[in-house]
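Trying the structure run again after the queue cleared.
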Amino acid sequence: MCLNVEDKEFSLNDNAAPVRRRLRVAVAGLGVIGEGAALELAKDETPYALCAALVRDPSKARAAKLAALRTYADPAVMLVEHPDVVIDALPSGEAGRRLIEAALSKGVSVVTANKQAIAGALALLHKHAAQHHAVLEYAPSVGGGAPMVETVRRARSLGAPREISAILNGTVNFILSAMKNGAAFSDAVKRAQDAGFAEPDPSADLSGEDARAKISILTYEAFGREIDLDAIAVEPLTEERANAFSKNGGVWKQLARITRDANGGLRAGVGFQRVDSDPLFRKVEREGNALRVVNADGRALTCEGRGAGREPTVESILGDLNRIALALPLRKLEGEENALRRRVSVG
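Done. Tokens:
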């Protein structure tokens, strides 16, 4: 016998395997990325139940498929909807950090695309998640459509990583590609904004802060510990610097690097390098990202993909959501099943 109650489906036959119900998902932020994720979850064939959204203005008109979605301006009130998972697509790192901590403290798992919310705090947030039987995933925060977090995890499972080199900012790469093809700096920035790769204020990209946060996250994945953000040297992309690249010729890229020395010390930085002789990085155009991780035994793993934009980031969010659905502690769902059994017995 199976009984459906509020989207929950459990087998009440002791000999049958329990059927997991559709996980309830809330989306925080309905901007370019958050709205894209919400629209995917609103499709009829999705295995998830979109239950709520956190927005700045709940009265704002939404896409037709999201018109009936319950929206809240207060994170605490949104969490009263009892989501199983929250997707953090907020533009603010500070607001994202508060939301992630609040969700995890209630046993709500999180997928975040908000690199500023988690950079430098991953050890603490993972500990928080474990204490409350929740799961924290963040592949969308690094690499967009390039599976960078997954690649670094794979490398670590095969041995001890020694060095990571990566193109981590799709906006900067887009600008450098456009200028290599003859565009002026200001025009290249505008093209990136018009394409949806750069924010109206592109300072986080141009200053290198975006890449700094991302290499910090990859450092944790590779070495299981974090490096202070202030210890990561960053070279900004200025108009003067970009014009010098064009004048000098060749293929220039913004590369983020992290290395571990023989004594276990970590050193990280973000800067510009000519990569004409590097077969991986020299071919990365427009909003592309790429990564190479080299282990102590010399083995190298690489990945590449679109590093900015709605579509690749939403795909990464859905991938993490699927991982959470598989990894979510079964005892949480078993607890709901037991509660339902008691309700049926009493009834």
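The two ends are 15 Å apart (CA to CA). Worth checking whether this holds up in the mutant runs.
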